Amino acid sequence: MKIDVIHKKKSDINKVDFSNIKFGQFHSDHMFEAEFSEGAWKNFKIIPFDDITVSPACTTLHYGQTIFEGLKAYKNKKNKISVFRMDKNAKRFNISAERMCMPTFPEKYFTQAISELLIIDKKWIPNTKNTSLYIRPLMIALDPFIGIKPAENFKFYIFTCPAGNYYSEPVKVKIETEFTRAIKGGVGYSKTAANYAAALYPSFLAQKENYDQLIWTDGKTHDYVEESGTMNLFFVINNTLLTAPLGDTVLDGVTRNSILALAEDLNIATEVRKISVNEIISSIKDNKLQEAFGAGTAATIAPIKTIGYQNKDYELPDHTSSSLSSKFLNLLDGIKYGSIDDNHNWITKL
Ligand code: COI
Q1: Residue closest by Cα to atom 3 of ligand 1
Q2: Termini Cα distance of the chain
Q3: How many angstroms does the Cα of residue 299 sit away from the middle of ligand 1?
């Protein structure tokens, strides 16, 4: 793939306070753009980050035919760029694309586009603790057509944002048993706008009650925990690490997958299985729930301090440096920033 480059005349980097980076608020100078029409990807460009123009009738705006990804690049101690598991995000992007009747984007183009963009905007990758450059690939459908059918014309973009922590403190989450994020046969496993749109109102209600996030339960019985919308979930009960299985309703998180691989390396007893709300609540009451945490690209590893259920808040044990969440966070950070060997080949160095 040949990418044409138009450089931004004057960088916006001085507008950013790198000592206090808020998640997702600033965009780096450049973005990647590609067009899909007549059955093929074409016109690959890196151009200054800017607004885009679409028809008010376009399929994305009305019917939500759009998908995205989230991954991160880091600057290691030698000032080299490292990108975490971008092949995995490229694959998941195409799984989402198929579910949403959108064209797949060749994996090698996906990784090439990210690599070239990162090299051009290298100075935007922060190098302080807990910071990274968040990379947001995005595909939108463009057909100006009122009616329900898959579009034939698309654009693919990648833009990036310097990022600090998504959650700066342990989170307070509420087990949601009224609203539903995803159901069997739906689009829950696809990183598409609909999942996030469906979560807005229930999350807004939970935020009014002072919760940071929801724990989604299965749409049929609301008896089993699934994921948290911004992250997958892990629980430690009786020294066993538990997480819900993947399926139609749970996003196949890259951080979740990496934690399961590290748990295997460390011989940590792990069970990937259905976890009932009852099991969570009774193990909190019996002091058997040792810890709970969320795992996601934006959230990294977010310890859970409180779980709300049926109008009651249950406080969890404090997270310490010997918690599994701290162990996984340190290992993942070490691999990303280059102080721990990358035995799984997760890092691409640029
Ligand atoms: C990510 O973790 O990359 C996401 O897309 C979640 C979003 C809340 C930022």
Answers
A1: 70
A2: 18
A3: 7
Please write the tens of the pLDDT for every residue from 296-349. 999 999 999 999 999 999 999 999 999 999 999 999 999 999 999 999 999 999
Cβ proximity of 220 and 249 under 8 Å: no
Cβ-based neighbours of 221, under 8 Å, separated by 6 or more: none
Residues near 248 by beta carbon (within 8 Å), at least 6 away in sequence: 182, 183, 184, 185, 186, 188, 189
Pocket of ligand 1 contains residue 298 by CB under 6 Å:
yes
Percent of the chain with pLDDT over 90: 93
Map 208-238 to HEC letters.
Answer: HCCCCEEEEECCCCCCEECCCCCCEEEEEEC
Cα(58) to centroid of ligand 1, in Å? Answer: 25
Ligand 1 center from residue 56 Cα (angstroms) = 26
4-164: CATH number: 3.30.470.10
Kindly report the average pLDDT of the chain as a whole number: 96
The atom number, within ligand 1, closest to the CA of 24 reads 9
Atom number of ligand 1 nearest to Cα 299: 2
Q: Look at the block and give the residue holding tokens 């973005």.
A: 31
User: Does residue 296 have its Cβ closer than 6 Å to ligand 1?
Assistant: yes
Q: Whole-structure pTM over 0.85, yes or no? A: yes
Which CATH class, in words, describes the domain spanning 171-337? Answer: alpha beta
- The domain segmentation of the chain, as residue ranges, is 4-164, 171-337
Is it the case that residue 236 has pLDDT exceeding 90? Answer: yes
Domain 4-164 identical in fold to domain 171-337: no
DSSP letter, residue 166:
S
CB of 230 sitting under 6 A from ligand 1: yes
297 lines ligand 1 (CB under 6 A): yes
> Are 348 and 111 in contact, with CB atoms under 8 Å apart?
yes
Q: How far apart are CA 340 and CA 331, in angstroms?
A: 7
